[in-house]
Amino acid sequence: MSDKAYALFEEQQQQRGIDLKQVKSRLKALNIETPSWGYGDSGTRFKVFQKTGVPRDPYEKLEDAAQVHAVTGLCPSVAIHIPWDKVDDYGKLRSHAEILGLKIGAINPNLFQDEDYMLGSVTNVDPAIRRKAINHLLECVDIAKETDSNDFSLWFADGTNYPGQGDIRKRKNWMLEALREMYKALTPDMRMLIEYKAFEPAFYHTDIADWGMAYHYATKLGPQAQVLVDTGHHLPGANVEHIVAFLMDEQRLGGFHFNSYKYADDDLIVGSANPYELFLIFYQILNAAQDVDADIRHAVDKIAYLIDQSHNIEPKIPAMIRSVLNVQTQYAKALLINHAEVEEAASRQDVLGAEDAVRQAFEFDVAPLLKAIREEQGLPADPMKAYLASEYGAQILQRGKGGASW
Ligand code: LRH
Ligand code: MN
Ligand code: MN
Fold it and tell me: According to its UniProt record, what is one Pfam family this protein matches (predicted)?
C-alpha cells in the first residue's frame, strides 16, 4: 500500500470534515483485553480438540498474549479465569505479566465447573453451596488485590431446565445477597461487571437472563457495579447497540465481551459474521463520547473492551490477532462518522440521509489509516503477517499436546 493511498484517504476525510488528528489519537488510545482462556484448548460441548503448542499453564498463556500485544500494540492486559488460572503465587503471576509488558486485567470467578454447582451456585437451594460460591467470589477479590486488577467479570451459569425446578423469586434474592456480600468487599477502585445471558447451560430460565436484570442488580448494589455486554448472549434479533446506548446513558455500561455469533453464544472470531453490528456499537459509543453531560463522557472513557472467544478449530494466537484487528478496523470506521451530519439529517427527518451518513463511514477502506498509525507507533504495518513470519509459532510446538484447557 502506497503513501498515495493514505494521501487520497486524508483528502477524502478532510472534505467530509473529519479531524484525522483526533481519529488517530483515539485509535492509538484503544485498548482491547484478551482472555487467558482464548489461548488454551477449547471446544464445543461435543469435543475439546487438543492442539500442539498450546500453553501448559497460566504463565505460558501470558507469554502467548504478549505476542498478540507485540504485533498489534493493542492488548496490554489479559483477563484471567479462576480456577482455570489458579496458581500458588499470584504476585509471581503478576510479575511475570509485568516482565512481558502486560498487566493482569479482569478476574473471572468460575462458578460453573464444580460438581456442587450442578443445580446452581449462588442461587442453589442449599445454603452450604451458596456459602461456598460466595467464598469463591471473595477469594477472587483477594486475588485481584495481589494481581492489581480492578474489574471482575461476573457470569453465573445459574438457572433451571424445567418449570418448578427452582423458586425463581427466591433465587433472585439469593443472587442479590451474594452480589451484595462481594460488593462490600471491594476496594474503592474495583468494579463488578455483571454479565447476563439468556440461555445455556440452563435452558428454561437463567437467573440473570438479560441486560435489564443485570442493570437491576447493578443499581441495587451501587456505582461500582455495572453491566457487561457479551455480544453472543442475546436472543436472536436483539438490537445490541440499543442496549449499549441505553446503558451508557444510565452510566452503567461497564464493558464488553466481544465475540461473533451466527446462532447463539458461538464465541467465534470477533467481527467474522457481523462486522456491521460491531461498527454500530462503536457508533453509539462515539456518540455518547460527545455527550454534553461530562459524567456520561467520563463513564464512556471507562468502558472495558474485552474479548471473549475460544477457538475450537483454528490456531489460537493468529485467531486472537484476527479478532483484535477486526475490532480495531470497525472502531476506525466508526471514527469516520460525521455525527453533525447524522444529527442534521435526523433533525430534518431525512431518514435516508441520516442512515446514509452513518453507513458511508462503514464503506471506507481504513487500511491506509491503520497502516499510517502503525508506522507512527513503530508497529508492523501488517501485524498478522509479522506474527506468522516470526519464529514463535514454531518454537511453541515444543510444548507438545495436552496443554491447558477449560
Ligand atoms: C459464558 C461466558 C462467560 C464465561 C466465559 C468463558 O458463556 O461468556 O463470560 O466466563 O464465557
Ligand atoms: Mn462472556
Ligand atoms: Mn459466553
Answer: AP_endonuc_2
Q: Rounded to whole angstroms, how far apart are CA atoms 320 and 324?
A: 6
**Ligand 1 atom closest to the CA of 37, numbered from 1:** 6
Question: Which one, of 108, 73, 35, lies nearest residue 270 by Cα?
Answer: 35
Q: Answer yes or no: is 190 within a domain.
A: no
**Domain tally, the chain:** 1
Q: What is the pLDDT of residues 78-109, one digit of tens each?
A: 999 999 999 999 999 999 999 999 999 999 99
Q: Which ligand is nearest to the CA of 37?
A: 1
For residue 277, the enclosing domain spans 3-109+231-399
Determine whether the shortest distance from the Cβ of 33 to ligand 1 is under 6 A. no
In a domain, 82, yes or no: yes
pTM of the model: 0.98
**Domain with 98 in it: what CATH number?**
3.20.20.150
Cα(34)–Cα(256) distance, integer angstroms = 11
Protein residue whose Cα sits closest to atom 3 of ligand 1: 155
* Ligand nearest to C-alpha 261: 3
DSSP secondary structure, 347-382, as one string: HTT-HHHHHHHHHHHHTS--HHHHHHHHHHTT--SS
Q: Is 267 in the pocket of ligand 1 (CB under 6 A)?
A: no
Task: Locate the ligand 1 atom nearest the alpha carbon of residue 195 and give its number.
Answer: 9
Say whether the ipTM exceeds 0.90. Answer: yes
